Amino acid sequence: MPTTSFEPHIMLPRDYIKWLVDQPEDILSHGQVPGEKLGLRYLFPGFDYTTDIALITAIRLHLTRNLGNIQGDLISEIRSVIDATFGVDDQTWTEVNLFTAMNTIVFNSSGFVLFGEPLCRNERFMRSMRRFGDIFGAGMLCVGQLTPRLFRRLVGCLFVIPTAYYQTICARYLWPVFADRLEKMKRNRVDPAFNYNAPNDLITWMFRAALDIKDSTIESPRPLVKRFTLVVIFFNRYFHFTSNQLANSIFSRVQTSGAISSSAVTATNMLLDILSSDSNLHYYRTLRSEAESVFPTTDHWAQPDGLLQLRHMDSTIRESLRRSPILVRGLWREVMPKDGITLPNGQHLPQGAWLGVPVPGIHNDERYYHEPEVYTPFRFVPSSLVDRNIAKGDDTDSENCKRAILTMTSDTFLPFGYARHSW
């Protein structure tokens, strides 16, 4: 497949996916792709994200354990950001840019988990973080995907100064918080008389992980501040992998200006899909009724189990991801052996070739989805669609319904990748 970077990209059919993901790292490497595809080695030379064990552990373990505990406060923050973005005047129509609004809501709400208060309410800090992410994302797109490899280092230099500028501004806000937080958490561990309840945010979880594993690289928080700003740009959801797999998956998620932007794109597509659908099908009314039944009072929003009961909403998000996936080409691997590799059909590929799969093509294949061109938001709801499909003798979507509940991804649903490197 021709690309602007003049590198060989080979698209494989869905039948090759299991073979692709089963290959060992020294044959088809997933870890080698981010450095080139995202331009990281040219934008931040020498940056090794796999060494930040404490930060990786904080995302992989502490975030998983504590997200439910802060759900009530997080919902309140989201509600506050939505009111500030859309306004609370229900008597006057106001025109808004939907993607800009979604980006603001997702980014500011994520700031509550990443930085906590008061930083997430500091407009200048959050604006600097957003601009840092936008410039960094533009750099990754231009350097990693639009520029031939021979000129990537030169083009990367054009983005180094603006990214370093905004990263430095963000670090100035983070450094005092880091220093104060680490000092108090250390003292709290050695002095029983000192009572300190650290805020529940990623900064606390990172230092807690560092203290637990006695990470000597975080004796002083100053070197960590800039690395922290890089990793949180990619943050949107938590993962369940080993440390190196997690680090790779963080970077494999960035296809726009970061994971937060991709969440904003998904939210925008979902709302546009719902609002542009046939009103006689009552999709919006069904979703609202489901939410009202699961969350009858404000207190119910703080219960983590409630989100698991939103089956129709979960299916609606999945359907929008099926129709408009963030990744147009996915499951990228680079051929590592000097002698190349041979595909199951006998075709030989040289060292350095990239292999992937066409995600939209699989998502719109009639062999895997009934009427794939039709927007069916409740396609993945077993209780409503399995019975209907069985009655008409079509179990294509029935299998997708079952897998949607059991796993996040499959070889026919690839918005987040597949297998051990999915995100």
Give your account of this protein's structure.
The protein is mainly alpha-helical and 423 residues long. The protein has helices at 17-22, 33-37, 40-43, 53-66, 71-86, 98-114, 123-146, 152-190, 202-213, 222-233, 243-252, 259-275, 283-294, 305-308, 311-323, 359-363, 382-391, 396-406; strands spanning 9-11, 28-29, 329-335, 341-342, 348-349, 354-358. The chain has a four-stranded mixed sheet. The chain has a two-stranded antiparallel sheet with strand order 4-5. The chain is globular.
What brief labels describe this structure?
globular; mainly alpha; four-stranded mixed sheet; about 425 residues; about 55% helix; two-stranded antiparallel sheet; about 5% strand
Distance between the termini: 25 Å
Low-confidence stretches: 236-258, 384-396, 402-407
Please report the total strand number as a whole number.
6
Instruction: Encode the helix/strand succession as letters.
Output: EHEHHHHHHHHHHHHHHEEEEHHH
In percent, how helical is the residue content?
Answer: 40-55%
Mean pLDDT: 80
* Biggest pleated sheet: 4 strands, mixed
Q: Hey, roughly how much beta strand do the residues contain? A: under 5%
- Tell me the radius of gyration: 23 Å
Secondary structure layout plus pairing:
Blueprint: E1 9-11, H1 17-22, E2 28-29, H2 33-37, H3 40-43, H4 53-66, H5 71-86, H6 98-114, H7 123-146, H8 152-190, H9 202-213, H10 222-233, H11 243-252, H12 259-275, H13 283-294, H14 305-308, H15 311-323, E3 329-335, E4 341-342, E5 348-349, E6 354-358, H16 359-363, H17 382-391, H18 396-406
Parallel strand pairs: 1-6
Antiparallel strand pairs: 2-3, 3-6, 4-5
Helix pairs in contact: 4-9, 5-6, 6-12, 7-8, 8-9, 8-10, 12-15, 17-18
